[in-house]
Amino acid sequence: MKSIPFLFLSFAVFLIPLSINHQPADASCAMTDVSFQVAIRGSSTAAQQSNNVGMTTTGDCWGNATTNTSTQVYTGSGTVQQDRNSSHFVGGSQPFPYGVTGPVVGTQITVPVDIYSPAHDSTFMNHTMGSGVSF
């Protein structure tokens, strides 16, 4: 039982130099694209929503980042066409610190929202008004 505390202390002393890093933190390059397309409309025809994202780089990359966000909102009756185009580019950076190279990380988040709203549908309101319901 006396050896267990000794082993624990020896292990802890061994970890202390490993946890101290005197070098600044850097990262590989990252590209992030976030798109929200919202259609609140009074049509039974589905909204047409497209999101075209291009992400390019030249060679390896270190310490660069791009971020692009956008929101498109439509409210009304009729058909909806929402199109979005986005481009990202990050260039390489030489020399790589500490001899480490890594891939460029690209993340695309697209949130299409298509909501049918009877309040924007004239045929729904006419049908309701004609049934004897008054507002």
Structural class: alpha/beta
How does the overall form come out from the CA principal axes? rod-shaped
Mean pLDDT: 78
**Major beta-sheet overview:** 3 strands, parallel
Question: How many strand segments?
Answer: 5
Count of DSSP H/I helices: 2
- The rounded Rg comes to 28 Å
What is the number of domains? 1
Distance separating the two termini:
84 Å
Low-confidence stretches: 11-15
Q: Strand percentage, roughly?
A: 35-45%
Strand order, main sheet: write it out. Answer: 3-1-5
Signal peptide: 1-27
Organism: Crocosphaera subtropica (strain ATCC 51142 / BH68)
Protein name: Secreted protein
Keywords: Signal
How do the helices and strands line up, and which of them pair or pack?
Layout: H1 3-19, E1 30-41, E2 48-58, E3 65-76, E4 81-91, E5 105-116, H2 122-130
Parallel strand pairs: 1-3, 1-5, 2-4
Protein name: Secreted protein
Organism: Crocosphaera subtropica (strain ATCC 51142 / BH68)
Signal peptide: 1-27
Describe it:
- Residues 1-27 form the signal peptide.
- It comes from Crocosphaera subtropica (strain ATCC 51142 / BH68) (Cyanothece sp. (strain ATCC 51142)).
- The protein is α/β, with parallel strands linked by helices and 135 residues long.
- 19% of the residues lie in helices and 43% in strands.
- It has helices spanning 3-19, 122-130; strands spanning 30-41, 48-58, 65-76, 81-91, 105-116.
- The longest helix has 17 residues, at 3-19.
- The relative contact order is 0.27.
